[in-house]
Prior knowledge:
single chain, alpha+beta, Arc Repressor Mutant, subunit A, Beta-Lactamase, 2 domains, 12 strands, disordered C terminus
Amino acid sequence: xxxxxxxxxxxxxxxxxxxxxxxxxxxxxxxxxxxxxxxxxxxxxxxxxxxxxxxxxxxxxxxxxxxxxxxxxxxxxxxxxxxxxxxxxxxxxxxxxxxxxxxxxxxxxxxxxxxxxxxxxxxxxxxxxxxxxxxxxxxxxxxxxxxxxxxxxxxxxxxxxxxxxxxxxxxxxxxxxxxxxxxxxxxxxxxxxxxxxxxxxxxxxxxxxxxxxxxxxxxxxxxxxxxxxxxxxxxxxxxxxxxxxxxxxxxxxxxxxxxxxxxxxxxxxxxxxxxxxxxxxxxxxxxxxxxxxxxxxxxxxxxxxxxxxxxxx
Length: 313
């Protein structure tokens, strides 16, 4: 049984109290849904700066030490965004700052704006506020009802997540977190990164791990040792060495994953190069399937049996 989280910040407790003790993360997500409805936003937000203009928020880009900074002006606000970040990350930063403003409107507490000082950043209550604003930004840019509908229709895979991220103009990191938070199926995503230069690959580090809830009694590996057994189509090792998506089968013991699952590995263009592996609880107890064919879709039926559909058939 998953342990219920306890929120300690004044902001979270006020939100929960006003909504008859609902989860604060759910409340801010609903705030984002209502925000979209009020502005009649359907589908991806093409230009978030236009949303800001409606709210009398100026957006500026500058070299700063943070993702973004929110300041108040006489008749509104100004969001200063790190100009060195990529466009998708900047969009999320702007949506995050809008979350701070909406939290203030909802609670009336100055704590809604957070604090960028080192002492406050390390304060758990301040961290909670930032986390709530991330939930708001996620729902604002990636509405759950739309993502659920698209995933149910077209299936779940790394390829699908990439396509959704491109359509909604969000980072792969944000998209993966959204998919795992939706928890449509029991799934996890691991981002792998070489410990050293790709040409002298010895180990892959699990840089990020995304999972809504614990899957079985699995202890996920922090790293895996590269071996010839893993240099086959479908594994993150093969994917990184060849810099392309791949598919195949690998015995559970080689990836050190004590779980029955469908797995897909895909290349992620970044510096350094990364591979992403999606793990969905299904399959044969002796093997896991690794599939990254971009010409196929992966879809679950109501009976939760894994099916592959060739888009060309």
